[in-house]
């Protein structure tokens, strides 16, 4: 995957106003519903500059060739409902603030690591 693919699959800022069927609409618009339905995909709702910064100064190493963001990003994750892999695809939506985990090449994001859902823990005030 390259930077343009990353933007096509994972960048949506500001969050598109497509009604209450966000995931179904966006997954179809971004060509991830054919010939088979992509099971999981996340959209990051922040500026390109903030996402780029995770590759530079606002990220920390996380596993093999990955960077975890220091800040929380607003992210919508679309997950395929059921096990039907053929269109029409039907997705459920979950939007949460979370740290993103990406891989970078030449200072640009090229891969979003779907399998890592890092949610910042609240510090206890004792």
Uncertain segments are 120-126
Briefly note the structural class of the backbone.
Answer: alpha+beta
Series of H and E elements: HHEHEEEEEE
Biggest sheet features: 4 strands, antiparallel
> Helix count, per DSSP?
3
> Strand arrangement, largest sheet?
2-3-6-7
- End-to-end separation in angstroms reads 45 Å
GO molecular function, one term: nucleic acid binding
Family: Belongs to the pancreatic ribonuclease family.
Domain Ribonuclease A-domain: 2-116
Protein name: Ribonuclease-like
Give an overview of the whole structure.
It comes from Python bivittatus (Burmese python). GO terms for molecular function: nucleic acid binding; RNA nuclease activity. Residues 2-116 form the Ribonuclease A-domain domain. This protein has 126 residues and is α+β, with helices and mostly antiparallel strands. The chain contains 3 helices and 7 strands, in the order ααβαββββββ. Helices cover 19% and strands 29% of the residues. Strands 2-3-6-7 form a 4-stranded antiparallel β-sheet. The protein has a 3-stranded antiparallel β-sheet with strand order 1-4-5, with helices on one face. The chain has helices at residues 3-10, 22-29, 48-55, and strands at residues 40-44, 59-61, 67-69, 73-80, 91-98, 101-105, 108-112. Residues 120-126 have low confidence and may be disordered.
Write the layout of secondary structure elements.
Elements: H1 3-10, H2 22-29, E1 40-44, H3 48-55, E2 59-61, E3 67-69, E4 73-80, E5 91-98, E6 101-105, E7 108-112
Antiparallel strand pairs: 1-4, 2-3, 3-6, 4-5, 6-7
């Amino acid at each position: 995957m390259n930077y343009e693919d990353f933007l096509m699959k994972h960048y949506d800022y500001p969050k598109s106003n497509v009604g209450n069927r966000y995931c179904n609409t966006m997954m179809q618009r971004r060509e991830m519903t054919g010939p088979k339905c992509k099971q999981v995909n996340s959209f990051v709702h922040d500026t390109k500059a903030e996402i780029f910064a995770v590759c530079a100064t606002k990220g920390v190493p996380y596993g093999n060739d990955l960077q975890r963001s220091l800040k929380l990003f607003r992210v919508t994750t679309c997950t395929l409902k059921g096990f039907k892999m053929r269109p029409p695809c039907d997705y459920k939506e979950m939007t949460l603030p979370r740290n993103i985990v990406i891989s970078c090449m030449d200072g640009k994001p090229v891969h979003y690591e779907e399998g890592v859902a890092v949610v910042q823990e609240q510090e206890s005030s004792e």
